[in-house]
């Protein structure tokens, strides 16, 4: 029994950013990725024969970094999805409007960005609902995608997402750039370029404290991938390009 409890504690306290998002401890049963993927409850990446990928940016909007990223995206005719924090939407509504005006997509990333690893259903409802309202008030747009902070999920979070007509989106495990750590421009770029494949959902951030490494890395990544024949779309556009629904990308960690 002691050994079982120790293993359970280790599972619960695993770092989400280690590359394997783990279910919240509020779940009655921890199910593996394939269970949620086959049901369409959660999307990590999209099986497609087309050379398309989706860049995603979390934690914004930010008055300085988001416009810099938008400039680079514009330069390479790239569209992307921005998972915004509701509290920051209320502070910078003009930035969210700018994102949408340039043809990008805005998704829900909670209101205060709390850890969803131990979140109650009531708090999840509040976090998601308030952010939906903030986006709608700022832009007149209703988000259709949700990404939980840190990638934490359980059945309650999935249910709340569905109740708000939101598709829960995570990211390709091999495409977590960890740019939030400001590891260096070239390291961010290498992470994407050395692992890229069709249907990837790439995790980046448009708000990293005192860092512009993400926008600088994009200046390396986008021209190289464009040279390789890739195009850059929103997550919703990528979902529309999915191959046979019964075909799944092989999971790698």
TrEMBL record:
Signal peptide extent: 1-23
What is the organism field in this record? Paenibacillus segetis
| InterPro entries in the record | Glyco_hydro/deAcase_b/a-brl (IPR011330), NODB_dom (IPR002509), Polysacc_deacetylase_ArnD (IPR050248)
- Lineage, broadest ranks: Bacteria, Bacillati, Bacillota, Bacilli, Bacillales
Superkingdom, natural source: Bacteria
Swiss-Prot/TrEMBL keywords:
Hydrolase, Metal-binding, Signal
Record's protein name = Polysaccharide deacetylase family sporulation protein PdaB
For this protein, the record's CDD domains field holds: CE4_NodB_like_6s_7s
Residues covered by the NodB homology domain: 51-233
**Gene3D superfamilies attached here?**
Glycoside hydrolase/deacetylase
